[in-house]
Amino acid sequence: MSVEAERRIAPSVHAVALGSIGDAVAAQEIVTFGYVDARENVSRRRVEPHRQVYIELRWYLLGWDLDREDWRIFRTDRISEFHSTGTRYEPRPLPADSAVAYLRSGLGETFHRMRITIDAPIAAVADALRHEDARLSSVNHTRTEALLALDSWQRVLPALSYLDSNFRIEAPPDMATDITQFARRLTAAVQAHD
């Protein structure tokens, strides 16, 4: 054997689910399914499926949500009770160059923008965030600004801890609250251990 690849843990999606979604996309059929969002809210959805996207070790479905009358991105591993209705739809123009571009834009239901200013040079930050959708700019030779589109803020924690640098996070209110609560739990855990 001449090649070996690292094993990375990612949310699992059954091939049958991917096949069912792919069939509905190809047939342009409206689908229904149960969905659990990042905050564990459960809902039923009626969607015109447009594309499946595989990015950063996750599968997503991009579709037009008929009840919300807008484009939405759904993590495939959070979809259940998926059914094709047999009702066909006319494709809508996508408000981006591609499904990947739309997903990366952070405009979907599960993606949020975050800005992190890190007291580290851009080369170190680029290495630490190499698996994330991050746009980096150098503030000066020792400080970097990172703009990220994330479906969960927890994904950046390992990278920030490995950098061992001070940083400042600007995030949407819900995400900022979750991060603050986690910081309190982490502080309490360290104090309890002492």
Comma- or semicolon-separated keywords:
single chain, 194 residues, SH3 type barrels, 4-stranded antiparallel beta sheet, 9 strands, 37% strand, WYL_dom
Q: Could you characterize the architecture of this molecule?
A:
By secondary structure, this protein is an alpha+beta fold. 28% of the residues lie in helices and 37% in strands. The protein folds into 2 domains: 15-96, SH3 type barrels, CATH 2.30.30; 112-193, Alpha-Beta Plaits (2-Layer Sandwich). It has helices at residues 15-27, 99-104, 122-128, 157-163, 173-193; strands spanning 29-36, 42-55, 58-65, 70-75, 79-88, 112-118, 134-140, 143-150, 167-170. The longest helix has 21 residues, at 173-193. The mean pLDDT is 87.
CATH top level label of the largest domain:
Mainly Beta
Spatial sequence of strands, sheet with the most strands: 4-3-2-1-5
Unreliable segments of 5+ consecutive residues: none
Strand content: 35-45%
In N-to-C order, the SSE pattern is HEEEEEHEHEEHEH
Question: What structural category arises from helix and sheet content?
Answer: alpha+beta
Number of strands: 9
> What gyration radius follows from the Cα positions, in whole Å?
19 Å
State the distance separating the first and last CA atoms.
Answer: 48 Å
Number of helices: 5
Q: What is the CATH T-level topology of the largest domain? A: SH3 type barrels
